[in-house]
Amino acid sequence: MRRAWSTVVIAVCLAATLIAQRGGPPQPVRSPQAMAPFDPTGYWVALVSDEWRYRMLTPPKGTWDYVPLNGEGQRVAREWDPAKDEAAGEQCRAYGAGGIMRLPIRLHITWADERTLRMDIDAGSQTRFLRFGNATPAAGKRTWQGDSVAVWEARRAARAGTPTPGRYLKVTTTNMLPGYLRKNGVPYSATAVLTEYFAHLMDDDGTRYLTVTTMLEDPVYLQQPWVRTSQFKKQADAKGWNPTPCSAR
After folding, report:
1. Which end of the chain has less neighbouring CB within 10 Å, N or C?
2. How do 126-132 and 147-153 pair as beta strands?
């Protein structure tokens, strides 16, 4: 009995010592909202500083400059017919996750819950949900915005095996309906995978910006990944917010 009791005491002491060495009892896991390295919420407006004529205007049919379309992608782009999209109820093809961030849009970002960012977009009246988690959700019905899995990622490690706190938001989107990279029918397919990196910047005067670097991979229509960076400026309020329906033209 004494030996058994001694064994218990030794085990308890060892456990207490290990906990003390590790800095105390285990801490509760922090939610993605609590772990956020920057506040993404609020109203943001796109700064169209590149490819203006492809983003602010609908390019002519058959124009896919700077998009690495393969032969099949070029064939589909040449056959673009907005009237056909309208008749099929597919006016939102250019407003899917694969292309919408390149449109002249405004964003309203909120936390739907502590593990889900909600992104409302005025152009096309679209809504994206960026869900934090370790696994891709089970694929359901395809939608224009698809299924987005988010994670806070570090830029680099401080030392071997010790990552620095997250500095940007990585979002991977799958299960999208076929859509357009540009409003003139430059296509991406249902097999496309979209990866986005959201970074926060602040100017000397306190003005805040989001940069969104997107990489869309599509073996059906692209020769190589399509990579672009878009900028958004933080607004103080909802001024200019103007939800509008999708337009095929």
Report:
1. N
2. parallel
pTM, full prediction: 0.85
- Secondary-structure class of domain 31-235 per CATH: mainly beta
What CA dihedral angle connects 75, 79, 80 and 82, to 10 degrees?
-170
CA torsion 52→55→57→62, rounded to 10°?
Answer: 110
Predicted local distance difference test score (pLDDT) of residue 248: 97
In this structure, the chain runs to a length of 249
122-181 tens-digit pLDDT: 999 999 999 998 655 556 799 999 999 999 998 765 555 655 555 899 999 999 999 999
Q: How many helices (H) and strands (E) does the chain have?
A: 5, 13
CB atoms within 10 A of CB 243: 13
Rounded to whole angstroms, what are the CA distances from 56 to 23, 44, 109, 129, 184? 55, 17, 22, 25, 12
Taking the CB of residue 130, how many other CB atoms lie within 10 A of it?
25
Where are the domains positioned within the chain?
A: 31-235
| Chain centre distance of CA 212 | 8
Q: Which helix (H) or strand (E) holds 35?
A: helix 32-35
